Each structure stands twice: as C-alpha cells, then as structure tokens.
Amino acid sequence: MREITYRQALNEALAEELERDPNVFLMGEEVAEYNGAYKVSQGLLDRFGPRRIIDTPISENGFAGLGVGAAMVGLRPIIEFMTFSFSLVAFDQVVNNAPNMFTMSGGQFNIPITFRGPNGPAHQLGATHSHATEPLYANAPGLKVCTPATPRDAKGLLKTAVRDNNPVLVLEAELLYSSKGMVEPPDEELLIPLGQAEVKREGSDVSIICYSQTVPLALATAQKLEDEDISAEIVDLRSIKPLDEKAIFDSVAKTHRVVIVEQDCPFCGVGAEVCYRIQQNIFDELDAPIIRVSQEDVPMPYNERLEKAVLPNADKVIAAVKKVCYA
Amino acid sequence: MQPVEQRDEVEMLSLMLLIRRFEERASQQYQAQKIGGFCHLYIGQEAVVAGAVAAVRDDDYIITAYRDHAHALARGTSADACMAELFGKETGCSRGLGGSMHFFNRQNHMYGGHAIVAAHVPLAVGLAFAIKYRDEDRVTLCFFGDGAINQGAFHEALNLAALFKLPIVFICENNLFAMGTSVKRSTSLKQIVDRAEGYDIPGEIVDGMNFREVRDKIAEIVSSIRKEPHPTFVEVRTYRYRGHSMSDPASYRTKQELEKYRLDDPITRLRAQLTREGNLTNEQFDQLDKKAKETVLASVKFAEKSPQPQLDKLYDYTYANGTKP
User: What is the CATH number of domain A198-324?
Assistant: First the structure.
C-alpha cells in the first residue's frame, strides 16, 4: 500500500482501464489538452492520444448522448461532467436514454457507459454549482450510482464502473480530490464491487450511515463522540444503488440506533430510502427513531456563513447522535 | 450483403406497399383497441425510408424517431415482429417492452425507435463516432422530423458531428407539421436545410415523394462519405396523410392540401415509373399488393396468438447481467 490522493487514484483507474480495453475512451470538457478541470485526467492525452482522450465543446446533452450511442455498438465510453451540476443539462440522456435502452429494446441494447465527475456542494459556488444529484439519479431504474469517499474506493469503484455492462454514475467528491489515503500498488488489480458498503470505523452505540463527503465528517465526529463515551460505527454506503442493505442491517442490529448523514437535500433524499428499508426490515432492532442529517431544504446560498448553516456539520451530527442515544 | 446498385426497384416498391398496408392495418387494430399508447403512422412518407435504405449497405447504421414502424420494416424486421410489438407481445421486435415508438432490431442495425424529439440525434452521432473510432467504412443514417430541428440536442449533435467529421447523414423528414404546428409557425428559416449551413455541413433538398430521387441523392452522399468521413444534411420534403398520431384528426390543415399530396403519392409514382419503363404490369402490381396485404393480415393473427411477456421476467430487462438493486 502507498498513500496517494483521491485525484491520483481516479487518474490511475482511468489509465489502467484505457490500457486494458481499447473500447474505452474518455470524453468531456477540458479532459484532454487542459488535462482536466480538476486534473483528474492529467497526462492521459499524452499517453493515449486524441483518438481516446477527447475534448468536447460545452454541450453536455450532445456528448452524453454521443456516449450512449457509441455504447449501443459496444464502445465503453467514460463521459466526464465538469461537475454533476452540469449533468442536469444532459438529464434527458442520462435518465431517459442510457437506463431505458435495455428495457425498451427488449434486452437488445445494454449501455456500458460510465458518467463521472465531481458532485455535491463544494465551497461557495452558489445554488447552480452545488447540486448533490445522487437522489435524482438513484431514482431512475436502470442506473447504478456510486459515491466513493476515499482514494481507494475512488479507484476501485471507477474501475468496476467501467467494466459494468450498464450505465454507472461515479459521483466523485469535489472537496476530496486532494485528500490522501492508502491504496494498493498499481501492479495489484483493485476492483471494488458496486453495492458493497464498508464499515469505516467499528463502534457499538450508534450507527452513522454516510457516503461521499459526509464520510470524513462522520469519522471526525466519531472522534469527538469518543470523548463523550459514545462509540459510533461509521458505515460508508459507497454505492447508493445498488444499496448494500445487509451491511446497514448488520450494523443496526449491533448498535440499535441510527443517524444518517447525507450530503443531499432532505426531501426524497438518500436517507429517506435507507430509513424506510431499516424500519421495514428490522424495525424491532431499533431502540430509537432514526434521525437524518442532510442539507437544509433551500437552494444553496453563496454567503459562507449561510452555506455552513445549510450543510451537515459536526454539531448537527453530535446533536442527532445524542438524541438517538437519549444522552 | 446486397450491393446497393443492384437493389431491385420492384422489391423496394413491395417494401413501400408493405409499409402502407401495415400502417393501415395498425390504424384499424388501434381503433379496435388492440394497440395501446401512442401510434404514429408513416403513410405518405414511404419513399423516404425506402429510398434511403436502398442507398446504403445492410451493415450501415440507421436510427430514427418515434414514427418508426417503417424503418424497422425497411430493415427487414418482419411484419409479425412489428405487429406483435404493437400488441405488446413477447414475440415483438422489442419483446413488447418498447411499443410503437420503440422498435429495435440489433441484428439488422436498426438502433431504434426514439420517442423524445431530437434526443436520438446525439445517439446517432455516437454511432457515427464509433464507426470512425474503429476506422470502418460504414455510414449512419439519422432520421428525424421537422419538429426536431429546434431542439438543443439537435444543434449540439450537428456541431459535434461537424467538429469530429463523422460519417453521418442527417435526414430530416419534413412533413410540414410538428404535431399540429406547421414549420412556418415553428422555424425562423425560409427552408430547413439552411440549419446545416450554421454548422458548415453541406445540405441538400430532396423530393420525398420520389423514391428514385431520394435513393440517388443519398447514394451519392454516402459514396462521398465513404471516401472521406463527414456529415451531410438532407431535407426530404414529404407529407403524412394521417394526423400526428392516431388521436389527431389533423384539423390544422386543409383537405385541398392533403389531396394535392395524395395525387403525388410515392407508391403511385414509382409504380407509374416502373410500368412506363416496361418493368411492371398491372397484374404484377396487384400481386405485390395482395402479398403485402396477406403478410400484414397474417401478422395480426401472429400478434393475436402470441404470448404476453411473462410477469416473472419483469426485472430481467432493467440491468444487463440481471442485477437487482
């Protein structure tokens, strides 16, 4: 194992998959000559050339659709959105074309495409650039959605996504690109299955279920809770869809108390689904009502103080944990 | 694979007859409530798809919008499979899961059947991208209606095709109406073909009621694309005799206008050309028509007796490799 950044991990995943399969290509705005708006595709143009690393004009609908069409005849496109906030311009392609094709054609056309890019609130980007799109996409049958929080997960999930025969969205965390973590050496194949959560920290008093940018928040909060003699177990979903019910239920059966810390907005959010499944399947394991910590239900304000107030933070998580623990 | 220049015109006339009789029968079955949802008929436009497929190889890619029955038939999908799809049966060309607007035939390179206006134009560019990526000499034919040319997806797709120099023919089937809105009321241009100019894509206007003109023009374009990949735009001027869909009485146009086009009927026209040249007798034509009617009638019987898709397979076509989230 060695320590690399989340950005490097994604870059390695792309390079390895491009190397492995000539049908894989990377397309998006600024991915080639600019080396990526967030430098995730650094050096790939030099290595793989302009046939496979392709800059596009600012036409998300156009190039997302191009990817779906190319996938219909067996190519395996990786389509980068500069941010998933911009994917909304391509919503029709991602939601109406990519996941519907297999059904509509009676199983004749599967779409092996990966849509990837940063997702979720970053820092003072305002309402249009701060969308956490995971509940939107997870709601569409036929799509798979993953949300890596660590460099290792980023690499392993992206590689798996590229090899999947269905449309997969890899929702990266904009604020985590420079974060570091231990990852297997490049000569060791790293594939992390979709639909497999990971317990990032063992605990016994409360299960904090989180994903993406809320994983580091939950881990930091768990440290603080330790000082108050509350032992928090951190379950990182890693994939929103498919959802690893078993990992969730196992943890809940152990702690009997649940706080869901999600980076999206509350209404019909990821936490609502997780919450539903817990009460539906293991109601008797619960010793307290589940609490969700999410964004506030407002468009993201630019003002820094207000933005902080909208987002989940340690104080909100601690308050929620204390409430479910009756502490 | 049949070389393009040898495609038999009498055979193509048969195809046009099959399309027309199929659509007439679909209309009747729709009214008898055997067919659900929306149903858009191609009657009047037969020369467009027949001319276009006659101009390309069988391994070239074609993709179209929701008025797609004809395109599936033109690509060798059986009337049985098409009618069964309309009936929502498991033997349909999309296993009864697609319906009228979503016909597919992978084996014969018919890539749908797409029901969101212009949303398939980027897909078509993707098919053409794959051709170039693999350094093949295929061509993509992308059909769409006049209503598509004002959608953002259309514009983005044309720009990408021109920028990447992709082997694609954009075929605008201009039947003068996007549902009930005439081209005059929807489009700021004097003629649709001028849309291509904005993307530095060469454009042509073709008489869509004339099979030979459509075929010859598209053949010429395709041969130039095979030498050096590039996009081309063709505005094919045609007319649908029926309303936009089965529920549309088409009261936004005059009977005189419809009659004018009926007199210029594409089937009558090709028949007259062939007869004049001594390549088709009236008896032969009647035989072809009889055969088309019989094929279509048989397809109704086939559809009727075909099984429904099985309930226990409901989840089998959501994810390839059978993932169930």
Answer: 3.40.50.920
Q: State yes or no: pLDDT of B325 exceeds 70.
A: no
**Chain A contact for B44, CB < 8 A?**
no
Can you give the residue ranges of every domain in chain A? 2-183, 198-324
CATH level 3 topology of A2-183: Rossmann fold (3.40.50)
Long-range pairs of A30-36 with CB within 8 A, sequence gap ≥ 24: A30/A55, A30/A82, A31/A55, A31/A80, A36/A80
Residues in chain B: 325
Q: Is the pLDDT of residue A86 over 80?
A: yes
ipTM above 0.90? yes
Residue B140: partners with Cβ closer than 8 Å, 6 or more residues away: B60, B61, B62, B63, B124, B125, B127, B128, B131, B166, B167, B168, B169
The percent of residues in chain B predicted with pLDDT above 90, rounded, is 95
Which of B128, B163, B317 is opposite residue A103, by nearest beta carbon? B317
Q: How many CB atoms lie within 10 A of CB A193?
A: 14
Q: Which residues of B touch A103 (CB under 8 A)?
A: 97-98, 317-318
Tally Cβ neighbours within 10 Å of residue A33.
9
Task: State how far the Cα of A134 lies from the Cα of A311, in Å rounded to an integer.
Answer: 16
Out of A12, A16, A29, A129, pick the active-site residue: A129
B19, B44 contact by CB (below 8 A): no
CA distance A151 to B199: 42
Q: Can you tell me the distance from the alpha carbon of B114 to that of B68, in angstroms, rounded to the nearest whole number?
A: 8
Is residue A129 annotated as a catalytic residue, yes or no?
yes
Instruction: Return the closest-CA partner of residue B130 out of B176, B105, B161.
Output: B161
**Mean pLDDT over residues B260-283, rounded?**
96
pLDDT value for A327: 84
Smallest Cβ–Cβ distance between A62 and the set B61, B116, B160 belongs to B160
Q: Do B125 and A65 touch (CB under 8 A)?
A: yes
| Topology of the domain comprising B4-300 | Rossmann fold (3.40.50)
B125 touches chain A (CB under 8 A): yes
pLDDT reported for residue B4: 56
Mean pLDDT of B144-168: 98
Distance CA A320, CA B142 (A): 55
Secondary structure, 3-state, B105-116: ECCCCEEEECCC
Tell me how far apart the alpha carbons of residues B64 and B54 are, in angstroms, rounded to a whole number: 16
Domains A2-183 and A198-324 share a fold: yes
Does residue B324 register a pLDDT over 70? no
Q: Can you tell me the mean pLDDT for A178-194? A: 97
Active-site annotation holds for A60: yes
Residues of B in contact with A141 (CB under 8 A): 318
How far apart CA B58 and CA B141 sit, in angstroms, is 12
Asked whether the beta carbons of A167 and A257 are under 8 A apart, the reply is no
